[in-house]
């Protein structure tokens, strides 16, 4: 036992990531503290990694005088790997390639560059492995590697041989999803939608360089881009929707996108998006249902009246007004997400059951061949069909498993839903987080609202 045991004590934190030294009694006047001796004593007590030699030297220089606990070692935290993701190659107006993230500019909503057949439209950035850490007693702390995904071809795109690039198979415009990219032909209207053009239903992207008046319908498999105003019309897109001059719904019609919606303002509109909604100015007396987030923080950035539902976050500069107009906000998992989970669970179950039957059937043919019996022509054709169906069913099963994993993660993340107000939140704003409800009765400024300890709490932003 060292004489230093009577003078000092080493305390190691519960997570073993920090070691602290305390002093219990003074060193004798005739005793000289030596750095090498102190270092060895620290190591004898199990602290072998991340030692702050300069702190030990300071203790020696002060001849062991510690007025307060001093940190003598800290561990190295693990660094988790990055998830794989799809990077959409940015295109310039001359069909050149620029390796930057795609950005949306509503002012140039109709001037979207096209892609050419054979052009690379997206790249998969591979997942990275994590870097393990070490605690102060030298134990390795494992790190999580990033999650991978399978790059699959979209409509009119193919996957390169190295499985890392998506290549356009036709000339057209891109429609970007999380894990794939489609290339659609483009239908353009050079002006307002009117009786001459009529309603539009198109397999690709639709670009309207004017307005969409009340009563008209535009449906697209790709993106819809409107340079003017959308009135009480119906816009349904399997991609994203961009409306440069705003949505004036008059409580009628609907603007619905499978991905995101970008617009200047929404007034008495009905808006639904499986992704996010980005509004540059105001959302007034509207109904918005969004699986992701609603962002209204540019310009005036106010939300007044109506009902807004978001899975993750609602952000605005102001919510409500001085007139105390009733404004309803719902945060958390939307019913569509729950229904989607149920649907994919059924798809996964059906695919698993079908694979079991198909593999049994394939085994019958293989056993017959192993016994030296030749398959009849019809049996050979049937065997090939069974193999092809197995491949297709395995693909369906893999997709269902991936979607379920993401949806369940979304379900967990939704419990951390939040409302952020950069300036004012006025009275008569009603907040609902699942089973929790709260009515705002006083003015709040610069606040964040979320569930903390099973209740809706308002804290400074």
Structure explained in plain terms:
Helix 3 (335-370) runs antiparallel to helix 4. The strands form seven sheets. Strands 14, 16, 18, 20, 21, 23, 25, 27, 28, 30, 32, 35 and 36 form a 13-stranded mixed β-sheet that branches. It is extended and about 105 Å long. It is of the alpha/beta class and 461 residues long. The protein folds into four domains: 3-74, no CATH class; 85-133 and 140-183, no CATH class; 185-275, no CATH class; 335-415. It contains four helices and 36 strands.
Please give a quick description of this structure:
With 461 residues, this protein is of the alpha/beta class. 20% of the residues lie in helices and 34% in strands. A hairpin with a 2-residue loop joins strand 35 and strand 36.
Overall radius of gyration:
31 Å
Biggest β-sheet: count, sense, barrel? 13 strands, mixed
Mean pLDDT: 88
Percent of residues in β-strands: 25-35%
Structural class: alpha/beta
Helix proportion of residues, in percent? 10-25%
Taken from the alpha-carbon principal axes, the silhouette is extended
